[in-house]
Each structure stands twice: as structure tokens, then as C-alpha cells.
Write a structure and sequence with these properties.
By secondary structure, the chain is α+β, with helices and mostly antiparallel strands. Among the domains are: about 90 residues, no CATH class; about 80 residues, Helix Hairpins; about 70 residues, conserved putative lor/sdh protein from methanococcus maripaludis s2 fold (Beta Barrel), CATH 2.40.420.20. The chain contains six helices and 22 strands. Strands 1, 16, 17, 18, 21 and 22 form a six-stranded mixed beta sheet that branches. The chain has a six-stranded antiparallel beta barrel with strand order 2-11-14-13-12-15. Strand 17 and strand 18 form a beta hairpin. Helix 1 crosses helix 2, helix 2 packs antiparallel against helix 3 and helix 4 runs antiparallel to helix 5. The longest helix is centred in the N-terminal third of the chain and has 42 residues. It starts with a helix and ends in an 8-residue tail after the last strand.
């Protein structure tokens, strides 16, 4: 009876867990779902023995016990994997909590809420506008030209004996540059002197004979014809003496030409002929080139539309100042005056050429040097000057950002005048002493908060 009771309890337990036993008479067993796996108590060998005692399905009970054991092992394995997955999730969440962005930043409250930061001030560079005089000038690119350039050539044929100058040396007018062998001309000079002496003696003899013939003619002791013939002989002797004297002078000049001197003061270039070479008169190559650099000239071209203001200053009788600057237009090289204006406009370029002269005592200007020429036309006195970097341009015209004392940028529209040397004359819209933004204006808007850093104040050019 007890065995029957146990079997009934086991079957009830199996029914409670949703398991169909072999005692129900259904075979083969259905496939169990994972959520309906039997627990460990479902495998009871007493129940199997009771079933065996009744003689019902001994083989079925063995199979059932084996199936329940396998299902229990599968359930324990599934639980292990669930525990592993949960632990992995916990560890990953902890790592993210420790390394998440913004952890520990100031301004976060204890509950995780953060206060929104205020707008940051934009860093800018400012310069102070000031009052001063602004020169109004006309700029053009020009080339430095020597007032005089001479190629020194030999005027006689001969061998070059000595060179008395150094390449690139400054020489004065009349200074000895080179010497040519004078021996052939010295020999010719002696020959000419001998010829002159002989002709002089013949002339004196002819003159004495003519005096005797005059006395005899007066006494009518000789014919008048003989006297006239002697007079012609005297005149021929005088002509021969003059020819000899001319030949002698020519040889002396050629001897002078053997000493080559500087025709003007200036700087000599590279030597073109070395000593020992034979040179010829009017050799195309020459010996050396001399350029006059004190004073020196600057030739530049201006547009035809800008010619009239220059002519008004030039024709007024006043000297028109012209300054020479380097190629970048920042460093002043020399100051001079306008010397000439060309008589026509180049139709190909639409420009007119101007020429200015400079004393150039310090040698700052060099022939064929490219410089920027600035012709001073007028001077605007006591105007507001602003750096050209501060000027911004938009659809409605020019404007600047003025930094107020409270650190707020205000957009100010301007009326501009002429500009020169990085400075712009402001007719209206800006006062002296106001700070304007020269760097960082592209990031600003009207009313923006700024963090200004002052630059050196703008300077007026004298």
C-alpha cells in the first residue's frame, strides 16, 4: 500500500511540474521545454521500484530515470551560463560608469544634473585709433638708372701694360685707369721732331734768300720773277713746318691716349680686358664700364589717370618729393625730387614715365635695382587714423568692430578717406582713442563679448 501511495505522490508531483510519466500509458514521451524541466526531486528510484513491482513497464522506468538525469544536468549548465552572462554585464556597466565622459567635471550636482555654461568671450587683438597727419602719395614700381653710363675704350692701338683700378671701385673723374705701351708713339714723336727741325732750317734759309733778292730787285740787279719764285719757296717751307708741327701734336695726343683716365666719377664694373692683351682703337667691348651713382635717377611709370595731380604739383614750381622704398614697401631707402615728366603716354600700357633724382651719397640705390617710388601729392592734417587691418567690408560698406570698456564689441559703419602706409583716414564713424579689432573680427557679431589684447598703437609716417 505504501508503495502505491508513493507512486501516486510521485505521479502527482510529476503532474504538478507538467511532466507526463510512463504510468499515464502514453509512449513515447513528449519533448520537454526548457521552462518545464523537472527538478531534482522528480527522479526517485522508489517510484521506479514501485512501478517495477507492479510489473508495469520496467524498461520504461529505466529510460525515464535516465532522461530525468540528463535534463537535470542541462538545467544546471544553463544556470551557470546565465550567472556568467549576468556577471559580465555587471562588470561592463561598472567599467563604463568609471570611464564615462564628463565624470568629475565641475558644475555637476549630486543628483547628476549639470548647469549650462555661459557663452565664452572671444579673444581678439585690438589697436587704438589716433589723430595725426596722413600723407597722400602715389605709388609705382620703378627701376634705378645711372644718370651717366660710359664704356671706357682705348683710342689707340697697342698692348695693355697696366690696370690701375679695382673691380667695383669708386673712381673720380680724371683718375688713371690703365696704361698702353707708349714706345711706338715715342719713336714717332722723335721722328716728327726731326722732320720739324729740318723743315724749320729750310724755312730760315729760304727767308734769308728772299731778303737778299729783295735788295737786288730794288737795285734792278735781278729779275722780278726770280724774287717771286723765292717768295713762293718761303711760303712752301712755312707750310711744311706747319705740317710737321701738326704731326708732332698728333703724336703727343696719341701718347696722352696711352694713359686711359676716367671720363666721369662713378663706380667701375668688372674688368673686360686683362693686362698684356692687345687693344685696338674703338674696340666694341671696351676695357670697363663706369656708372655714375652720385647722383642717381629713378624711372617709374604711373597710370594716365594719375598724371594730372602730379602735373599740377610739378608745374606749380615747387619741388615734388619722391621717396624710394624697398620691394616690400616697408623700408625707406632714399629721398629725392621729381626731375622730369615724359612728353607722351605709352598707348600699349596707358602709363606715363616719370624721372626722379636722388643724391645717393650713402649708396643705398644701385643701378637697375627695382624699388617702389612714392610721389607725395598732399598731406591731410589732423585726421583720425585707423589700421587698415581693422577695416571690414560688407554689402552696406566699410565697418569696424569697436571694443567698449565693458568688453563688448560694437559694429561701427565708417566713411573712409585716403590710405597710406597701412593707415586709413576715417572721415566719420570713429573717434581718436577708441580700440578697434585688428585680428579675430571674422568670429565676431555686433554685441559679442570679447577678451581684448592690445597691440602696439598705429604710427603716423613722417
Amino acid at each position: 500500500m505504501s508503495g502505491d501511495a508513493d507512486g501516486e505522490r510521485d505521479e502527482g508531483s510529476d503532474q504538478t511540474h507538467g511532466v507526463r510519466t510512463p504510468s499515464d500509458g502514453d509512449w513515447p514521451l513528449p519533448v520537454l521545454e526548457a521552462n518545464r524541466l523537472p527538478n531534482r526531486e522528480c527522479v526517485k528510484f522508489d517510484t521506479f521500484r514501485a512501478i517495477s513491482a507492479k510489473g508495469k513497464g520496467v524498461r520504461h522506468c529505466d529510460i525515464w530515470a535516465t532522461a530525468c538525469g540528463i535534463l537535470g544536468v542541462m538545467r544546471r549548465s544553463a544556470r551557470t551560463w546565465v550567472v556568467v552572462v549576468i556577471l559580465g554585464c555587471v562588470l561592463a556597466g561598472g567599467a563604463y560608469a568609471l570611464t564615462r565622459p564628463g565624470k568629475g567635471q565641475p558644475g555637476r550636482s549630486g543628483g547628476g544634473a549639470s548647469a549650462a555654461p555661459g557663452p565664452r568671450a572671444t579673444p581678439v587683438v585690438t589697436a587704438v585709433a589716433r589723430a595725426g597727419d596722413l600723407p597722400v602719395s602715389l605709388s609705382a614700381l620703378g627701376s634705378v638708372t645711372a644718370l651717366n653710363t660710359v664704356t671706357v675704350r682705348s683710342r689707340v692701338d697697342g698692348q695693355l701694360l697696366k690696370v690701375h683700378f679695382g673691380e667695383g671701385q669708386l673712381v673720380r673723374q680724371g683718375e688713371l685707369l690703365a696704361e698702353i705701351d707708349p714706345s711706338p708713339f715715342q719713336a714717332q714723336l722723335k721722328q716728327a721732331e726731326g722732320q720739324l727741325a729740318r723743315d724749320m732750317a729750310a724755312l730760315q734759309n729760304a727767308q734769308l734768300d728772299l731778303e737778299r733778292y729783295r735788295v737786288l730787285v730794288d737795285k734792278e740787279m735781278i729779275a722780278r720773277q726770280q724774287y717771286d719764285t723765292q717768295a713762293a719757296t718761303v711760303r712752301q717751307a712755312e707750310g711744311a713746318v706747319k705740317a710737321d708741327q701738326g704731326q708732332l701734336d698728333l703724336i703727343k695726343v696719341q701718347l696722352d691716349y696711352c694713359r686711359i683716365t676716367a671720363p666721369l666719377g662713378g663706380r667701375v664694373g668688372l674688368r673686360l680686358v686683362d693686362p698684356g692683351n692687345m687693344v685696338k682703337a674703338n674696340d666694341p667691348g671696351g676695357l670697363v664700364v663706369i656708372t655714375q651713382i652720385e647722383p642717381i635717377a629713378l624711372v617709374f611709370a604711373i597710370p594716365e589717370d594719375s598724371l594730372q595731380p602730379v602735373l599740377r604739383q610739378y608745374r606749380s614750381g615747387k619741388s615734388v618729393p619722391v621717396d624710394a622704398y624697398d620691394r616690400e614697401g616697408k623700408r625707406k631707402l632714399a629721398s629725392g625730387t621729381l626731375a622730369a615728366v615724359d612728353n607722351q603716354i605709352d598707348p600699349g600700357t596707358g602709363t606715363a614715365k616719370l624721372k626722379a633724382t636722388f643724391a645717393n651719397r650713402d649708396g643705398a640705390l644701385f643701378p637697375n635695382q627695382f624699388v617702389n617710388a612714392r610721389v607725395l601729392l598732399d598731406v591731410l592734417p589732423n585726421v583720425v587714423l585707423a589700421p587698415s587691418e581693422a577695416i571690414q567690408r560688407g554689402p552696406q560698406g566699410a565697418f569696424v568692430y569697436v571694443v567698449k570698456p565693458d568688453g563688448v564689441a560694437q559694429m561701427r559703419r565708417l566713411e573712409l578717406g585716403p590710405s597710406d602706409g597701412g593707415l586709413v583716414a576715417v572721415k566719420q564713424g570713429l573717434a581718436p582713442g577708441e580700440a578697434v579689432v585688428v585680428d579675430g573680427a571674422e568670429k565676431l557679431q555686433d554685441g559679442a563679448k570679447v577678451e581684448p589684447r592690445e597691440r602696439a598703437p598705429a604710427r603716423t609716417r613722417s
